[in-house]
Structure formats: structure tokens, C-alpha cells
Amino acid sequence: MSAQPRPRYAALVPVKPPAVGKSRLAGLGDGTSRRRLAESFAQDTVLACLRAETVEQVLVVTDDAQFSYVLSALGCSAIPDGVSGDLNATLRQAAAEARRRWPDLVPVALCADLPALRPEDLDEVLAALTTERPSFVPDAAGIGTTVYVADHDGFDPHFGPGSRAAHLEAGARELVDAPASVRRDVDEPADLTDAVALGVGAATAVALLVADDAS
């Protein structure tokens, strides 16, 4: 009997307008530096998704029209956020759009602040996560969530404060031994230090150089 084909994925990446994102990184520079870092995190996250072998499409959701053009130029698709202010509703909207465009692809939601994400690590995670029931990857702190996978009919993410507990309570399966690059989201300066130690993508590396020069 032949083996079942591995699922193929549509990555859903919600991007808060960089001008208002990452307020907890304010100590790393002025508003321009913080915005540049937020943009670079999203760019490196999207690029890693595009380079993952099991990801066939990437759909970004953002209300920043100018930045959506920047991200689209990398090779992803982008749509406006029709439910701004509700991350989980945004992701459900994105999953519905992905189903319309690519009905054979499984939706996988990722945070947009994974600057150290490696494509091979994402492939490893997607190979380990099941599509038979919702599954997720907890963040490095063990409190939040960085990746959530479910088939279209079961797609019901619970991102937000305490999302790890919320996903477990909802019956999602947790992948506890995911590679560090998949778990290292960046909200605070210490998180960014950890990400740099793992090895950040090119966009973040350049943004950090610019921030150092400006300081």
C-alpha cells in the first residue's frame, strides 16, 4: 500500500501595521527604529515560509497597504484585514480566503515576529503536526503560541494572552519539542537577543545594523 502524500500548506501571516506594532521594543530606539524592526521580523518570517518545502502559498493579512506591497514583492499574496483588532477573527478570515484560493492546501497560522525562523525547521514542525485535529507550537516562554494548524473545517485558533492554555483547553495537540527558531517570537529586547543568538534573517540583521548606527 502506498504511503499517504504529505499535506501541503498555505501559511497565514497576520501583520499588524508596523507603525503601531512592537511597543515593548521602544527601548531599542526611536519610533522609526521600532517600525523598521517590526517590518524586518515580518519580512524574515514570510521569506522563511516561502522557502519551506511543504508550504505552497503564503497569505499575509495587513491593513498597512504600503507594507503589503513590500511583502507581496517577496512572492506572497496579501489581503487587507477586514476585522482589525481581533487576531483570531483575522485568521479565520484568512483561512476562508485561503480555502477559496487553494482548497487543497491546509491552513497554518504563524506569528509575524519569528525573525530567526528557518525553513527547514518549519518543515520539520509541519511534518510532526497532525491535521487530524488542531495542533500548535507553544512559544519559547511556554505561555503563547507561534504556529497553529488545523484543517479548514476545524480551524479555530485561540491566539492572544495565555494562548497555549487556551489551545490546550480547546483540545488542540501541543508539539513540545519544536526547534527553537519556530518558538522564538520577539516581543521584548531579551527575546531579540535570543533570536540574534539563534541567527536572524537578512532583513532583521540589516535593521539591527541601522539601529546600531543611529544610536
UniProtKB/TrEMBL annotation:
Its EC number is 2.7.7.105. Keywords: GTP-binding, Nucleotide-binding, Nucleotidyltransferase, Transferase. InterPro entries: CofC, Nucleotide-diphossugar_trans. Phosphoenolpyruvate binds at T145, G160, S163. Pfam families: CofC. One of its GO terms (molecular function) is phospholactate guanylyltransferase activity. Pathway: Cofactor biosynthesis; coenzyme F420 biosynthesis. It is an enzyme of class 2 (transferase). It catalyses: phosphoenolpyruvate + GTP + H(+) = enolpyruvoyl-2-diphospho-5'-guanosine + diphosphate. Guanylyltransferase that catalyzes the activation of phosphoenolpyruvate (PEP) as enolpyruvoyl-2-diphospho-5'-guanosine, via the condensation of PEP with GTP. It is involved in the biosynthesis of coenzyme F420, a hydride carrier cofactor. Belongs to the CofC family. PANTHER family: 2-PHOSPHO-L-LACTATE GUANYLYLTRANSFERASE (PTHR40392:SF1). This is Phosphoenolpyruvate guanylyltransferase.
